Model the fold of this input.
Amino acid sequence: MAGLERQRQLLDFALSSLARRPMKNLASLTVYTAVVFLLSSVMLMSHAIRREAAALLAGAPELVVQRLVAGRHDLIPTDRLATIRAVRGVAAAGGRLWGYLFDPAVAANYTFLVPPDRSIAAGTAIIGSSVAAVRGVGPGDVMSFRGYDGRPVAFTVTSTIAAESALVAADLFLVSEGDFRRLFGIPADRFTDIVVTIRNPREVRTVAEKIDAALPDARIILRDEMRRTYESVFDWREGMVLVLLVGAILAFAIFSWEKASGLSADERREIGILKAVGWETADVIGVKMLEGLVMSLTAFLAGYGLAFLHVFHFGARLFEPVLKGWSVLYPEFPLAPSVDEIQMASLFFFTVFPYTLATIVPIWRAAVVDPDMVMR
Amino acid sequence: MSTLRVRPSTVLFAILAVGGVAFGTTCVEACLGPGRAAVRLARTARLAERLQLTDLCLFTEARYTRHASQADRHAAFQDHPAALEHFPSGSLMPPSGAANRASP
Amino acid sequence: MIHLSDVRKVFNQGRPNEVWALNGINLTLRQGGATVFRGPSGSGKTTLLTLVGCLARPSSGRVRLKDRDISGLPERFLTEIRRSTFGFVFQNFNLLSGLSAIQNVMIPAYPRGLPHKALRRRAMALLDMLDMGDKAEAETRWLSGGEAQRIAIARALINDPEVVIADEPTANLDSGLSAQFLAIAGRLKRDGKTLLVTSHDPFVCEAALVDRVVTLHDGRIVEAG
Ligand SMILES: Nc1ncnc2c1ncn2[C@@H]1O[C@H](COP(=O)(O)OP(=O)(O)OP(=O)(O)O)[C@@H](O)[C@H]1O
Ligand SMILES: [Mg+2]
Done:
């Protein structure tokens, strides 16, 4: 009991000490919270996006076959379908028609796609939620684009894709095959690329090698590779995030170093007084550690909590300018709250401990000061 | 009476309790999150599968950011993941999985 | 109770600015009563009190407290003895600014882990005894010299020490406040505390309550009273 009460009294003292320099400590706390907030926001957001990507792309095509001409993706002739179907292990192969259209009216890029699962009446389109939002259109409205030959091609919007699917479909513009070919001038014997279904999933690599042998100008992309692309999206390694964070972390490191190493004459005197009136060196260090712990724990809880709200309840608003880049279409997608425990633990560790340590290190030097100095 | 003053530690415990409850709430939400979103995710996944989609619609500014996994070998940002380049999103995206493969 | 034999204290030994602050002190201080140390500035009075009060260790010689040799004890034990046996009233009071008076009074007791309520009651009782009850929540920075000293005295008494050490207690006070200090000192003496005080002030040295005056000069005792 006495031990507990003693800790509590030391804690009381640590808190009153913090309260004695309210502006300085509030400033520290704010900066600290902001750093934790930024780090946790990135962490929560990237984890959530990766999770959703894994779920959403689980059913992506097993194999995509592209044609490369002089290092550029080029339209693939329909006769390659037969070649691919002839490869052992291939269950089915089909051509995809998709591409981009720049809409000068709003300076946005749309992804035009001919849906393989439904037939769309000529002259109509189904549009993604962001397309609808950026152009301010809905079912019944007409959108017209300049075709490859300068003739306008008009589409009547029949429906929009639910906003809940924005993460994959925000910029989609689903049209019929005829309209697609007429808009872009793609001849009937060409596809954008070919998707392949494999009989035995374990043979994907063998089949890919066989297709590669049969079609020397093809480039093959495996589902695994599509998934992996998004496994490392917003990874720590990725430039911009890293640059931002390194900046913040460095600033904070300098800040805490300054705070930690700048043990003022006042603080030295105080430590002397405490020791003179009967505190042990361990008590003095304990109090400083409590101060550091209170600061870092509060900053962690506040920063992390705010980040959680920010990412999962406010759609990561603050990151929008970064994520949006130069694109006009920015999907507003809900993210299911999910947390990676290990990531969170390391965040906790790397935010709480260094600070606490940084506050005690200089105290060591002061704590060995002889208490008789206060008699001078 | 001054002896009834609140101890600073009591205030801290109150603050930490609030923080702890908030933290607990985030944990609960994080646990329930995937379950609650399951229906939405399943619907979206089905849509992606039916439309044979390969990429997330995160960055629509360039073709190699809109369809990162489909980008050809010579598209931008495949040099180095940290290279700063024309489109800001390039710095947020890794090179496509296929870009790292030697063959086929 | 306290026994010093051939105690020396040197500062900056081996360097050009070497100072022998104490040069062979032999002294016995009995329990109870009030002892005043006097002597010219730099004669070693303060240094002597730091050795007696376990704030520092002698360079050579022995300090015994109740037949226990404390001159060679490690820091931890010295702290323990200091906390339980001595109460200090420093020359410039050394209160912690930014804290209230009562918090300052309670500081020496924190490491003991007493129940908070009891501790606060005791601190309040001490402040009331010193007529400082209404200033308990005042911030120490705004206290006058006499008030600050009474807070410092209350702080020295919070752990109920046997010995109260005061270094130049009247140096910063006018004669009225000095008289007040002597009155408090008289009360402490009646309560059975041992008082060890340094002072230049004849007003203190010649006060009725003083039992013994020890005069120092150049680190030696020239008159043991
Ligand atoms: N930490 C120290 N380092 C170096 N010299 C010191 C130190 N402490 C005391 N001294 C020296 O020791 C001598 C005795 O000092 P002390 O403070 O004990 O004198 P004092 O009798 O209390 O003087 P005063 O009446 O002015 O308070 C002085 O010459 C002082 O300069
Ligand atoms: Mg002195």
The pocket of adenosine-5'-triphosphate (ligand 1) is lined by residues C 11-12, 19, 21, 39, 41-47 (CB under 6 Å). Chain A touches chain C at residues 1-10, 12-13, 16-17, 19-21, 269-270, 273-281, 283, 370-372, 374-376 (CB under 8 Å).
